[in-house]
Amino acid sequence: MIRRALIVIACAAGFALGAQAAFATTTPGQIYPVKVVITDTKITVAHDNYIHGAIILYRIQNLGTKPYVFEMFGTRTAVIPPGKKDTLLTTWNYQGKFLYRTLIKGAPAGPQGYIRICKTMKPC
Predict the structure, then answer these.
(1) Cα–Cα distances in Å, from 19 out to 15, 23, 34?
(2) Helix (H) or strand (E) holding 90
(3) Which domain holds residue 57?
(4) Structural domain tally of the chain?
(5) Is residue 51 part of a domain?
(6) pTM of the entire predicted model
(7) What is the pLDDT of residue 124?
(8) For residue range 11-46, what is the model confidence (pLDDT) as tens digits?
(9) Contact yes or no for 111/99 (Cβ under 8 A)
């Protein structure tokens, strides 16, 4: 009986942690800041799954050794020199899977990834 109770508690704790990991964007008109870190080998986006209609302010930091332009959803930042930051404001009005990547001199270069936009907060 105690073993079963411990299993139930462990499952509940795991579910709670998973629920906290979801990025809830339910307040209309609120801008949510999200950290993005660019290196020469990867792009780390703090959250990559949003609900339809989310307004996200991406705070992009270039920790790489080259100047990069960050492109997402057809919008680009200015050139971000190594060690510098820029921002990108996006309203996710469409559902689907959208590419983000780095550019050097206008051409895709380096890492890339995807943002997923869903109707509900359930992973899509």
Answers:
(1) 6, 9, 18
(2) strand 85-91
(3) 2-118
(4) 1
(5) yes
(6) 0.73
(7) 66
(8) 444 444 444 444 444 456 789 999 999 999 999 999
(9) no
Dist. CA 27–CA 22, nearest whole Å: 15
Per the prediction, the chain carries an average pLDDT of 81
Is 123 within the bounds of a domain?
A: no
The verdict on residue 18 lying in a domain is: yes
Contact between residue 114 and residue 48 where contact means Cβ atoms under 8 Å apart: yes
pLDDT of residue 123: 64
**Alpha helices, DSSP H only, in the chain?**
2-21
Check whether 9 has a pLDDT greater than 60. Answer: no
Q: What are phi and psi of 41, to 5 degrees?
A: -115, -15
Give a yes or no: residue 61 inside a domain.
Answer: yes
CATH number of the domain enclosing 24: 2.60.40.420
Tell me the average pLDDT across 109-117. Answer: 91
Residue 14: count of CB within 10 angstroms of its CB? 10
